[in-house]
Automatic annotation (TrEMBL):
Lineage of origin: Bacteria, Pseudomonadati, Bacteroidota, Sphingobacteriia, Sphingobacteriales
Domain PD-(D/E)XK endonuclease-like, first and last residues per copy: 666-871
Pfam families documented for this protein: PDDEXK_1 (PF12705)
Gene3D superfamilies in alphabetical order: 3.90.320.10
Organism: Pedobacter insulae
SUPFAM superfamilies reported for this sequence: P-loop containing nucleoside triphosphate hydrolases, Restriction endonuclease-like
Coiled coil ranges: none
UniProt-recorded name of the protein: PD-(D/E)XK nuclease superfamily protein
Length: 950
C-alpha cells in the first residue's frame, strides 16, 4: 500500500510546484522529515530547493522572541521563588535536593497549564466549600460540578490531616509561584516551552515576523492527532488566515465511529475545531485491504525478542526485509532485540537501523562517571574510600591499569585487609588516580573535575588508538552536555550542596543516547511506538504488546487531581488510551503483515495480559488472526554422579605422592574435610581451588574464632611462666578489652598495634569476643590451679598405614591451642566458637563418609592428642573441647552415651581411633575415585557444591 507520506509528497508537488521551497513542513517529531524528503526527491527526479522542516516545538520556539529555558534553569528559578514565598509566609525554606522531586511535578503541571491555556489563578484557587464552586463556576456543567464537589468534599469534612493541610497551603501559593516564575524567566529573556505556546495562542500568530518568511508558500502540518488547547487555537488562526494546510493520517474505520477511541482527537480536530483535512475523500483501508495478524504469546521478557528470528525468517528477499519495522513498546527490549536480529538473510547482509540509539547509561563510560560520583560522595563524607569502590575503579576497563598493576594493588590491600582507604594515599598515585580522586571542593568544580577525568581517559584512548566509534560518539556527546550544564548552572549553584550538584549531573547524563549505525530509509527499522508517527511499513512487529504498556496505566505524577483536570480539560488517563489506540491503528491501516508479541508471565514489570487494543481488534475487525504460543520445554538433567578418577591421572598421583614422600603434610582439618566429603579434599588440597580472599567490613565466623584464639594466646602469654591461679586470672582480666582490640587488629589488618576507630559491626564483634573470653576464663577459674605447657604450639608426627600390601606413612601437623597440666594429667585444650558437639556414637561412625555421625571436633582433638603424644613422648594425654556457646551447660569432655572420654575409657578408645584413621588413610591413597558423600549435611557448607553438581 502507498505510504501516507508519499501521498503527502505527491499532493505538495502538485499543489506548490516550484514554490514548495517557501513552505514550512511541521511534524510532531524529527523522524518523518527524512522520509518525506525521499518521496519528494523520488517524485521530482531532479535537484530542487527543499521546504523547511520543523518539529512543532522548534517551530513555535522560532516564532517567539524568547529563548526556551532548559529544565535546570527552570528548576533553579523555581526553587529561588518558592523559598522566597515560604519566607514571606514565615515558613522554613526547603533545600534544593528535597525540592527537586516536587519541582519536576510543578514544572510539568505549569507546562500543561500553559499548553492548554488554563487560567492558573482559577485552577489553583482555594475552593473550600461548595458555595465557592457555585459562585465562581456557574459556567460548569452538572458533571463538572460533581467532579469538583467530590474533590473538595474530602478536604471539607472533619478535621484536616497534617498532610492535607500542607497540600492545601502549597496549592494556595501556586498562583503566585506560577506568576513570579514566568516573570523571572522573562526578565532573563527565557520562557518555558508551554509558555511559548500560550504567548502565540493568546496573541495574533499571523503577525509573527518569523511566519512571514513563508508567505509565498504555506505552513503545512502533517500527521497531527491530539492537540493541546494552544495548538488548536494557533492552528485555527492559521487556517482562518489561509496560511496553513493540514494533512491528517486517518481512516474512516475509526473516524466515523464515535465509539472508536482511536478517532477521538481527530473527530475533535475535524468536526469540532473545523480543521480541514487536505485529503477529504477518505477510504477505509482498515476494512477494504487484507490484513494478516499473527499473535505470539511467549513466556518471559527477553523471550519476546528471541522470537524475531522466526518472524523474520518468513521473508524471502532483502527487499521485503527493507520494509519491516520492529516497534519496541517496551524499550527495555532493545538489547535482547539487537542480540537476536540476524545479520544475514539468504546470503545477503541485513541492514539495521536503530532510531532509539544507544544509551550512555548502559556504557562503560557512564559506569566510570557513576563510580567517580560515588567516590566523590565518600571523600566528602569521610575523606576515605571503601575498598569495593577502589577495587571497582582499578578493575574498570577505562582505568587503563595493566593486569600486573591491578594485581599488585589488590594484593597489597588484601594483605592489609583495608576496608577503607585514606583519600591522600590514593592522591599520591600517579596518572588517572590523581585526576579521578581529585576532591571536589566547591559546587562549581563538579563539572570541571568530571571533564578533567573524561578528557584524561579520552586522550589516553586516542593516543593508544583504542577508541571505538560508539565510545567516541558517547564521549563527545557527554562532554558537550557537561559544557552545556556548566553554562546553565552558572550563577545558580554557588550556595548549593555538592552532593546535589553531583546528583543533577548524573540525572542529566543518564538521558544521553547516540544513534547506532544504519540507514533511516532502508533495512530493518527498530524504533519506539512514538517514533512510528507518519511512517508506514508493509510488515510490522510490535514487541511488548502488554496491557499497562500499550496503553500506559498511569498519566504520570501531578499535583492536579483527576477531578480538577477534568473540570479544566487537562489530559486524563482516557486520553492516553485514545492516543495509544490511534498510533497502533494508524500503523496497521497500511500494513499487510502485522505481528503482536506479548509476555504472558506476570511479574513486577508486566501484567501478563495482552493489550486491550488487540482484544478490541479481535472483536470488531475483519482481520485474519493467527495465534501462536511459544512454550519453552523444560528439560531436567538426570542427576549425574560426579567423581574424580585417581588412576591414570598423573597430576593427582604426583600430588598424592608428595604426601607419601613427606614433602607435603596433612593437617587435621584436611583429614576431617576428606572424611566429611572426599571430593572436597580433591578440590581444596589436590586441585588447589581456593575461595578468593576479599576485603570486607563484615567479620566471618572463622575470623571470630581466630580473634578469640589470638586473645587467649595474648592473655596467657605472660601467665604461663608460673602456676595459673584464680587470683592471677582475675588480675589479668582487667586487660582483656585491650587484648581483644589487639587481637582484632592482628587478625583483620595484620597489624596488632594499629590504631583505629571501631564502628558499627566491629563494636559488635568486639563485644561478642569479650563474652566468649569471659566464658572461657570462668571455666578456667574452675580448673585452677593448673600449669600451661604451651600456647599455639606446632606439633608434627608420622602415622603409618597399609597401602597396596605395603606400609606407607604420612606426616600430620597441627597447631594446638593450649596444653595444660593439672593434677599430673596433660590436657589438650581446643577452643571452638561454632556449633560443634561433644557427643559421638562410636569410633567407626566418626570415619563413615556416608554416615550422619561425623564429629569433626572430636577427630581433630584426638589427632592433636595423638600428634602431641608422639611429639612430646607422653602418654595418657586427655582431649578437652571448649565450645564457648555450650560450655557452661555441657562441660568440656567428649561423651559417648553417659561416659566421658577420659581416663581408662579414653585409653581404650585411642587404639580403635588409630585403627580407623589408618583405614581412612588407606582409602585416601588407594580408593579409585574421590566421591561425594551420600549425606547432604556433610557438604552443606561446601564452597565446591556447584563443581560436583549439587
Amino acid at each position: 500500500m502507498k505510504p501516507f507520506l508519499q501521498e503527502v509528497a505527491e499532493d505538495l508537488i502538485a499543489r506548490f510546484g516550484k514554490d514548495l521551497q517557501h513552505c514550512a513542513i511541521i511534524f510532531n517529531n524529527k523522524r518523518p522529515a527524512a522520509y518525506l524528503q525521499k518521496y519528494l526527491a523520488d517524485e521530482i527526479k531532479k535537484p530542487f530547493f527543499s521546504p523547511s522542516f520543523f518539529t512543532i516545538q522548534e517551530f513555535f520556539a522560532a516564532a517567539t522572541n524568547y529563548k526556551i529555558a532548559d529544565f535546570y534553569l527552570q528548576f533553579f528559578v523555581l526553587h529561588k521563588i518558592y523559598n522566597k514565598l515560604l519566607f514571606e509566609e514565615k515558613l522554613e525554606t526547603i533545600s534544593s535536593h528535597k525540592f527537586f522531586p516536587l519541582a519536576k511535578i510543578i514544572l510539568s503541571d505549569f507546562n500543561q497549564i500553559d499548553s492548554d491555556l488554563v487560567d492558573a489563578e482559577k485552577l489553583y484557587r482555594d475552593l473550600e466549600d461548595i458555595s465557592v464552586i457555585n459562585k465562581d463556576f456557574d459556567y460548569l456543567s452538572q458533571e463538572q460540578y460533581e467532579f469538583l464537589s467530590q474533590f473538595w468534599t474530602s478536604y471539607s469534612e472533619g478535621k484536616h490531616k497534617k498532610q492535607q493541610e500542607l497540600f492545601i497551603k502549597m496549592w494556595r501559593r501556586m498562583p503566585k509561584l506560577y506568576k513570579l516564575f514566568n516573570e523571572e524567566l522573562k526578565a532573563q529573556e527565557y520562557i518555558t516551552n508551554g509558555y511559548a505556546y500560550r504567548l502565540l495562542a493568546e496573541g495574533d500568530i499571523n503577525q509573527q515576523a518569523f511566519l512571514k518568511s513563508f508567505d509565498k508558500g504555506k505552513i503545512v502540518f502533517v500527521g497531527f492527532n491530539a492537540l493541546s488547547s494552544a495548538e488548536a487555537k494557533i492552528f485555527t488562526q492559521l487556517q482562518d488566515s489561509g496560511s496553513a494546510l493540514f494533512y491528517f493520517d486517518v481512516d474512516r474505520y475509526y473516524l466515523d465511529d464515535p465509539l472508536q477511541e482511536a478517532g477521538l482527537f481527530l473527530r475533535k480536530n475535524i468536526h469540532q475545531l473545523g480543521l480541514k483535512n487536505v485529503f477529504p475523500e477518505l477510504s477505509s483501508l482498515m476494512t477494504k485491504e487484507a490484513h494478516t495478524v499473527n499473535v505470539f504469546k511467549v513466556q518471559g521478557q527477553s523471550a519476546q525478542a528471541k522470537i524475531l528470528n522466526n518472524i523474520l525468517a518468513e521473508e524471502d528477499d532483502a527487499a521485503a526485509v527493507g520494509s519491516t519495522v520492529i516497534v519496541l513498546a517496551d524499550e527495555s527490549l532493545l538489547i535482547p532485540t539487537l542480540q537476536t536480529i540476524p545479520t544475514h538473510r539468504n546470503g545477503k547482509a541485513v541492514d539495521l537501523n536503530v532510531t532509539m540509539g544507544f544509551a550512555l547509561a548502559t556504557s562503560s563510560i557512564f559506569g566510570l562517571i557513576d563510580l567517580w560520583a560515588t567516590s566523590q560522595l565518600e571523600i566528602l563524607q569521610s575523606n576515605r574510600l571503601s575498598y569495593k569502590n577502589v577495587e571497582a575503579f582499578i578493575t574498570h576497563p577505562l582505568a587503563g591499569l595493566s593486569q600486573k598493576m591491578r594485581d599488585k594493588i589488590q594484593t597489597a590491600l588484601l594483605v592489609e585487609n583495608v576496608v577503607e582507604i585514606d583519600h591522600e594515599r590514593l592522591l599520591r598515585q600517579s596518572g588517572l588516580f590523581q585526576v579521578f580522586y581529585q576532591k571536589v571542593d566547591k559546587p562549581e568544580s563538579v563539572i570541571v573535575n568530571l571533564l578533567n577525568v573524561l578528557d584524561y581517559v579520552l586522550t589516553r584512548l586516542s593516543n593508544a588508538k583504542a577508541l571505538k566509534k560508539i565510545d567516541a560518539e558517547l564521549f563527545v556527546k557527554t562532554i558537550h552536555e557537561l559544557n552545556r550544564l556548566h553554562d546553565t548552572f552558572g550563577k545558580h549553584i554557588g550556595n548549593e550542596e555538592i552532593p546535589f550538584i553531583i546528583y543533577l549531573v548524573q540525572k542529566s547524563l543518564q538521558s544521553i543516547t547516540v544513534p547506532l549505525a544504519g540507514d533511516p530509509l532502508n533495512g530493518v527499522q527498530v524504533m519506539g511506538l512514538l517514533e512510528t508517527r507518519n511512517l508506514n511499513f508493509d510488515k510490522v512487529i510490535i514487541l511488548g504488546f502488554n496491557e499497562g504498556i500499550i496503553p500506559k496505566s498511569s498519566i504520570g505524577n501531578s499535583f492536579i487531581p483527576d477531578s480538577i483536570r477534568r473540570v479544566y480539560g487537562l489530559p486524563v488517563l482516557e486520553n492516553l488510551d485514545a492516543i495509544s489506540s490511534y498510533m497502533v491503528y494508524r500503523l496497521l491501516q497500511r500494513s499487510v503483515n502485522i505481528n503482536f508479541v506479548y509476555n504472558s508471565l506476570t511479574d513486577e514489570s508486566t501484567s501478563g495480559e495482552v493489550s486491550r487494543i488487540l482484544k478490541q481488534l479481535e472483536f470488531e475487525s475483519n482481520f485474519k488472526f493467527n495465534y501462536n504460543e511459544l512454550n519453552l520445554s523444560v528439560k531436567t538433567q538426570p542427576v549425574k554422579e560426579i567423581k574424580i578418577k585417581k588412576e591414570g591421572n598423573e597430576f593427582i598421583q604426583k600430588t598424592l605422592q608428595k604426601y607419601l614422600d613427606k614433602t607435603k603434610v596433612l593437617s587435621p582439618s584436611a583429614l576431617t574435610q576428606y572424611i566429611s566429603n572426599p571430593i572436597d579434599f580433591f578440590f581444596n588440597y589436590i586441585a588447589l581451588i581456593k575461595e578468593p580472599k576479599e576485603v570486607s567490613a563484615v567479620v566471618e565466623a572463622n575470623e571470630i574464632g581466630s580473634i578469640l584464639h589470638k586473645v587467649m594466646e595474648y592473655f596467657y602469654q605472660e601467665l604461663r611462666s608460673g602456676e595459673i591461679t584464680a587470683e592471677r586470672i582475675k588480675e589479668r582480666r582487667i586487660q582483656v578489652p585491650a587484648l581483644i582490640q589487639k587481637a582484632f587488629n592482628a587478625v583483620m589488618f595484620n597489624h596488632p598495634d594499629k590504631i583505629i576507630e571501631y564502628k558499627g559491626m566491629q563494636k559488635v564483634i568486639l563485644a561478642i569476643v569479650n563474652e566468649y573470653v569471659s566464658i572461657i576464663l570462668d571455666q578456667d577459674l574452675k580448673q585452677t590451679p593448673f600449669n600451661i605447657i604451651s600456647l599455639e604450639q606446632k606439633v608434627e608426627a608420622e602415622i603409618s598405614f597399609p597401602l597396596h600390601g605395603k606400609e606407607a606413612s604420612v606426616k600430620i601437623f597441627g597447631y594446638i591451642d593450649r596444653v595444660d597440666v593439672k593434677d599430673g594429667i596433660t590436657k589438650i585444650i581446643d577452643y571452638k566458637t561454632g556449633s560443634d558437639k561433644l557427643t559421638f556414637k562410636d569410633i567407626p561412625e566418626l570415619f563413615n563418609s556416608d554416615g550422619k555421625h561425623i564429629n569433626k571436633a572430636l577427630i581433630q582433638t584426638l589427632l592433636y592428642t595423638y600428634t602431641y603424644e608422639q611429639f612430646a613422648g607422653k602418654t595418657c594425654v586427655e582431649p578437652n573441647l571448649y565450645i564457648v556457646k555450650t560450655m557452661s551447660q555441657d562441660g568440656i569432655w567428649f561423651k559417648s552415651g553417659r561416659q566421658n572420654l577420659a581416663g581408662d575409657y579414653l585409653e581404650e578408645i585411642k587404639p580403635e581411633f588409630l585403627n580407623e584413621l589408618r583405614k581412612k588413610l588407606t582409602e585416601l591413597f588407594e580408593a579409585p575415585y574421590f566421591v561425594v558423600s551420600a549425606v547432604p549435611d556433610n557438604y552443606k557448607y561446601s564452597i565446591y557444591k556447584t563443581l560436583f553438581g549439587k
